[in-house]
Amino acid sequence: MAAVASRTAGLLRLRAAGAERRWCGPRCAGLVQGFLPPGGEGAAQKRRVAHFTFQPDPESLQYGQTQKMNLFQSITSALDNSLAKDPTAVIFGEDVAFGGVFRCTVGLRDKYGKDRVFNTPLCEQGIVGFGIGIAVTGATAIAEIQFADYIFPAFDQIVNEAAKYRYRSGDLFNCGSLTIRAPWGCVGHGALYHSQSPEAFFAHCPGIKVVIPRSPFQAKGLLLSCIEDKNPCIFFEPKILYRAAVEQVPVEPYKIPLSQAEVIQEGSDVTLVAWGTQVHVIREVASMAREKLGVSCEIIDLRTIVPWDVDTVCKEECFLNLEAPISRVCGYDTPFPHIFEPFYIPDKWKCYDALRKMINY
Amino acid sequence: MGQPHVWLVRKEAWLVSKMAVAISVAKMWRQSRGLGQAALVALRRPGARGLAGSRPSTQQQQFPSLDDKPQFPGASAEFVDKLEFIQPNVISGIPIYRVMDRQGQIINPSEDPHLPQEEVLKLYRSMTLLNTMDRILYESQRQGRISFYMTNYGEEGTHVGSAAALDRTDLVFGQYREAGVLMYRDYPLELFMAQCYGNVNDPGKGRQMPVHYGCKERHFVTISSPLATQIPQAVGAAYAAKRANANRIVICYFGEGAASEGDAHAGFNFAATLECPIIFFCRNNGYAISTPTSEQYRGDGIAARGPGYGILSIRVDGNDVFAVYNATKEARRRAVAENQPFLIEAMTYRIGHHSTSDDSSAYRSVDEVNYWDKQDHPISRLRQYLLSRGWWDDGQEKAWRKQSRKKVMEAFEQAERKLKPNPNLLFSDVYQEMPAQLRRQQESLARHLQTYGEHYPLDHFDK
User: Fold this and answer.
1) Residues of chain A found within 8 Å of residue B171, distances taken between Cβ atoms
2) N or C: chain A end with fewer CB closer than 10 Å?
3) What is the pTM of this model?
């Protein structure tokens, strides 16, 4: 029995949106105080806390010395390792030169030079097309799309070009050394255009790989695998975890295999499958199930969406062995709303309720 | 101080904070320049938190010169006080560079590239061989022997003129009407045919429709159907070539219709901002299937767009092989030396239909087509040049026509007799490695064919 969910929520101050700072000059921070009347009783609710608690994995000792890193720092570390090892590797996209709107590329331009870490014009179809072209020559291209919500102008280049390059040329040409990175998923206040999880649009596109990590340690290993993989990859980074997720992460490079799901908790009664932020939601749901219902849950982090690890998740023959229909818990069939986010997201209560109904089926 | 200032002060009068004073003073300063030092001092009033920052009040901040020149980061230009819109000039557009007249005579001897006889003959033979191959393969589609074909009639000059000006290792990204570039680079007839037939010799392994050629050894990236997608890709490849210090440029071909795509705009802008050694080569042949240029754009063609991106641009007579050659040669020299893009718009005419799926008599007159076929054809013009130099004659013409037709027919008959590739090749190269699921699907097809094989054309396919 599997509950499949793909939406995340929570609050993280989105410094990237810059909204707090835009309306006055850079030195007007002090202006705000004394301008606004204080909030009294009946004032708007305070902003909510996140809908999940990040659960770090035990420190991995097999890759050498580790350092405390949050998610964006683990990304920077992976990119640093890649540029150090591969002289052809370049990183490009909107605003990556100064460090990126989520600070994933901080310090890299100074370290590796402006011909290797550079801004492009504001044009996603151009960014991905350009990245494909670099990869066609055999160099390593790491393209950043500023938000997954903005990947759609590049959809043609990804689906019609990148995914099909090797196949249509009879393996004369390929763009396997292309990796596209993008911040992904709900963040508490992102609304329609800063919260999307578009992996489903790519899930039926043969020729590309789509990968989503749940933590800093996973992110670095999976991103390094994507960069070195000989196929074009899309790496979605749960933005709500950029600062909220902190773990010990190896300083040296290491790889986590693609197309391998991870069973992060064994269980015998119900299987819960998720990826990205939602893994932490269902971890909590599993504890709730154990405490309140005495139910033993298996938790699977899918990690790679396509090509996905069918064998770990289910077997074709398992259809007859299911004791209840598979339940999907996800956002509603609406665009991602702003003020209604707490109601929209597949939080632990909805997942728990689905599990409870499943047990009682 | 005008009305706005008074409103501002009244609205904020209830704010007792010194901040309000600082705001209004700041606005005052912006509205009436020339307050100069007085305004600056006012901003430094103690308690004006945020504005003075942490600087001590005695320090004067240096602003850029207050003299009356524009300071905008976005443009380098002078002020003007006359309201006037720039008029786009389409009546007298960018002039068309040519070397030969329509009769193949050099107009300005200093522009003659003085190519040696062997080279000019190679240009001529490439164009005519392509023309012969086009006739035969077009006919073969009408007879149901191949599924689809696109001819290059009238545009042969754009292909060979540009290809001759490049280095052999310069990377080519094309659209679909550039077979002459491959022909010039000596791509064998057998392989053109193999791709069109999708037979066992096709380097593309039978995966694409005809004319979607690709050749790694000849640095010709495999064609894809979506239009203009190759443009930003070519730019990326050029950037990588620049970084590799390979003394290599990239050339990117596309039609005037594809130039309307967003990918074209993206490619031009990236090439200019990222300083890429690339030649954008636009074949403006008058039609995008049935859509004439008057419905494709309203400006002065494609060449006029280049300067908008900061790209050096030129318009040439695409039916004049030497003009195409000269422009491409010079663009190549400078692109590699200066790491910047060039845009060449080659004016030409699509004499043939868009493809075998098109009948262009539905949207243009036979007279119009005949004019170009008879009065301004790249092959005729070059032939006239060869004849006037004594490098060719009617006897050689007759012999070459016979010989080229024979070569094409032989390759054609061979290609037709060959088997198609093994159906297993349906499944490979999706990824570099075959995923487990795909292997299962491959096995499932094999089992299916064991039972139902009689309903499939297995006899035509390699075992």
Assistant:
1) 137
2) C
3) 0.88
